[in-house]
Amino acid sequence: MLSITGLHKGIVLDHIKAGRALAIYNALGLNKVNGQVAVIMNVESQKMGRKDIIKMEGNYEDLDLDVLGFFDHHITVNIVDHNEIIEKKTLSLPRNITGMIRCKNPRCISGIEQELPQRFMLTDPNKKVYRCIYCEEIAYSEE
Amino acid sequence: MKHLISPLDLTTEELDHLMNIAADIEKNPDKYAHICDRKKIATLFYEPSTRTRLSFETAMLNLGGSVIGFSSADSSSAAKGESVADTIRIISCFADIAAMRHPKEGAALVASLNSGIPVINAGDGGHQHPTQTLTDLHTIRSLKGKLDHMTVGLCGDLKFGRTVHSLINALARYEGIRFVLISPKELRVPSYIREEVLDAKGIPYEEVTSLDNALPNLDLLYMTRVQKERFFNEEEYIRMKDCYILTMDKMALAPKDMLVLHPLPRVNEISVEVDSDPRAVYFKQVQYGVYIRMALIIYLLELEDRIC
After folding, report:
1. CB atoms within 10 A of CB B90
2. Contact across the interface for A109 and B110, Cβ inside 8 Å
3. What is the spatial distance between Cα B226 and Cα B47, in angstroms, rounded to a whole number?
4. Looking at the domain B7-128+287-306, which fold is it?
5. ipTM of model
6. Chain A residue with minimal CA distance to B78?
7. CB–CB of B106 and A135 under 8 A?
8. Residues near A26 by beta carbon (within 8 Å), at least 6 away in sequence
9. Do B107 and A138 touch (CB under 8 A)?
10. Closest to A107 (Cβ–Cβ): which among B84, B125, B192?
11. How confident is the model at residue B232 (pLDDT cuts 50, 70, 90)?
C-alpha cells in the first residue's frame, strides 16, 4: 500500500474521477507552484471504486479553484491547517473559463487571432452549457 | 463607449429610439446633412460586400462625414498577417467610428475589445449581422406601424441564414409574435434557436414545408437565399435552391397587406414579376437600411444633441 503523509497546511482535492488528476494538475497550473504537490492516482475508494487525489502543501490563497467546477463539481476541496481540515469548499460551475478549452468552430476568430485567449461563458447552468464568447460555439462541462 | 456587435446589444427602448431618429431622417433629411461634419467612418471589409459597405458609406456621406477603408482582405494589412486587434488600434487613430465585416465569427467583438472608437459589426461570418436586423425591424415598423402582434413567415434557408436567426431573436422580444418556419427539413432552424429562444420564451411557432399552405395566414414573409457557400456539396445545393420560389401565383394566396422582405441579394427565390407587386418591399428595405445606419452612427457617436 502506497503511503503519503498528511498535510500541515494546504489543500487536498479528493474524490477526483480516476485518471483526471493530471488534467486538473495542469488546469490549476500546479507545475508552477513552489510547494510540494502529490498527485495520487487510482486510489481505492468505497464510494467511487477508484479515485484520484491531489495534495498541495503550502499557501494557496491566490489559487483559482473555481475552474474545478468545470471538470467535476463532485470533487471535494479540503482546506487544511495545523493538520486539521478547517474548511470544506463546495464547488459550483464557474461563470467564465479562460484558456482551458479550445473553441471547436473552425470559423471562430479565436483560431487565427494571435494571442487571443480562449474564453467561454456559462450560458445554461442546468445543462452545464458554455459558449465561446466570440462565436457562441457550444461547449459542455467536462463532467 | 458603445459598440454594436449583436442585435441584442440594444434594448427595445434603444431600438425604438433609433427607429424614431431614422423615421425623422426620412422626413427631414436636410436636418441631418451636417451632423457628422469632420467625422470619419472606417469601413473595414475583409470580404466582399456591395450593399452593406455602400449603405454605411452612403449613411456617413448623407450625414456630412467622410469615409476611409478597404473592401477586401487583400488590400488591407491582414494580407501581411496583422491581427484584428492591431488593425483596430491603428484605425482608432484615423477614424471616429468603424464598420467591420470579417469572415471569422467573433472578429467584430475582438475589434471592440481593443478599439478606441465605436465598432459596428457589419457581418462576422455566419454569426451576426446586426444592422441587417435593424434594417428589417425598421422596414417592418415603418410599413406596418408596429413590431408586435404579427404572424411572421420565414422561408428558405433557415439553418445557415444568420439574418433569420437574428430576426427571430429580435422579434421574440415583442408581444404577440407567432412564427411560421417554412423550409425543407434539411434547412430547418438550428435546435438551439428552437430551444433557447422559441421554447424558452414560450413563443408560438410551427415548422412547415409548404409555402403555399402558409401564405394565407402571414402578415409578413421573410424570404432568404439558399446560399451556395454554406453547402459542402454542389449537388445538394442544386437540389435545394429551387424549393421555395415566390411567384405571382403564390402571391395570389397571400393577404393583401402582407409584406415580402428579403435581405438580398436574391438569386431566383423571388420571381422578378413579383417586384412590381406593392407588397414586395425588399428594395425599399435597402433605403430603410441607409436611414437606420444613419441613426446608428449618430447614436454611437453621441451626436444626438446636434439634431435641431
Report:
1. 12
2. yes
3. 19
4. Rossmann fold (3.40.50)
5. 0.86
6. A113
7. yes
8. none
9. no
10. B125
11. low
Intervals of CATH 3.40.50.1370 along chain B: 7-128+287-306, 131-277
Q: Is A75 exposed, middle or buried (0-12, 13-18, 19+ CB in 10 A)?
A: buried
Q: CA nearest A127 in B: which residue?
A: B196
Kindly determine whether residue A109 and residue B126, on different chains, have CB atoms separated by under 8 Å: no
Average pLDDT over residues B104-115: 97
Phi, psi of B228 (to 5 degrees): -60, -40
A27-46, pLDDT tens digit by residue? 888 988 888 999 999 999 98
Distance from CA of B113 to the nearest CA of A (A): 11
pLDDT digits (tens, 9 = 90+) for B152-185: 999 998 988 889 999 999 999 999 999 999 998 8
Count other Cβ atoms within 10 Å, centred on residue A102.
Answer: 13
Q: Is B80 a catalytic residue?
A: yes
Q: Which of A111, A113, A133 sits opposite B83 (nearest CB)?
A: A113
Q: Is B233 exposed, middle or buried (0-12, 13-18, 19+ CB in 10 A)?
A: exposed
Confidence of residue A3 (pLDDT cuts 50, 70, 90): low
Contact (CB, 8 A) for B135 and B288: yes
Map out the domains of chain A with their CATH numbers.
9-89 (3.30.70.140), 96-140 (2.30.30)
